[in-house]
Amino acid sequence: MLLHLVLYSPHDEYQQMYELTRAYYGQFTNVKTIYYHYSPDQTEEYVLIDDILRIKGTEVFGPAITVKTIKAFEYFEADLFSYDYIIRSNISTIVNFHILQRELYKTPLDYGGSINVIKWRDPLAGIVTDELIGLETISGICIILSTLFVKNMLDHKQFIRFDIMDDVAIGKYAKDFGIPITSFTDMVQWMPNCHGNYDEVKQAIGDTLYQTMLYRNRNDESREIDVHQMSHIITLLQQVDESVWNSSI
Fold first, then answer.
1. How many other C-beta atoms are found inside a 10 Å radius of the C-beta of residue 99?
2. pLDDT tens digits, one per residue of 82-92
């Protein structure tokens, strides 16, 4: 059983992405998908309604997201070992759980997976010096963690860097504690601008449909284009006969 936590904000195009992806993820019976965001008006620390976890606080971006992610982990801490892995993705990344589960079956993780290497300073992520250049982090588009890793972090929160983005903070924690992580980055499709056109999306994906674990959608021109392209990606994935996915596991 996988716990899938999706980072999102309930406004603008993100709400459309939520509606799209929740219907898609709902078909995976062994994946529990929960969307999480800050809610400034509630009095309780946590409110879980259906598949949305509202955390008391004001919505944030950049390094402050690390606090929000750790809070989401903490909400499930008592029930943590009911799950084999904790997945933290974001609202504009589509996770193909057929492929993800296939890879975890082939290469079970003791700790974490999906590597990204820090190559330059990024003030928006809290990387303001060269200290973290070359660090292998667990890519924020889809952070794959064993429950053991998450429990380890929650037991040693004082060692988590809350001044950097959550994927970088988790990678830094892993390095500091000598925790191995596994790379799945060759299974990521960084979607180009296909202008929201179905045929262009289909051509961009091409023959990689059966090898791609993650579809990252981030169009600087318009997030509305991302919404259309995400819809087309989901359509293409759902057109594949279930037996084809099962035969690959």
1. 21
2. 999 999 999 99
User: What is the pLDDT, as a whole number, of residue 48?
Assistant: 97
pLDDT, tens digit, for every residue of 71-113?
999 999 999 999 999 999 999 999 999 988 988 888 777 666 6
Instruction: Note the maximum CA span of the chain.
Output: 50
Where do the structural domains in the chain lie, given as residue ranges? 2-185
For residue 2, CA distances in Å to 53, 216, 221 come to 17, 20, 34
pTM (global) more than 0.85: yes
CATH among 3.20.20.150, 3.50.50.60, 2.60.120.10, 3.90.550.50 for 2-185: 3.90.550.50
- 106 contact partners, CB below 8 Å, separation of at least 6: none
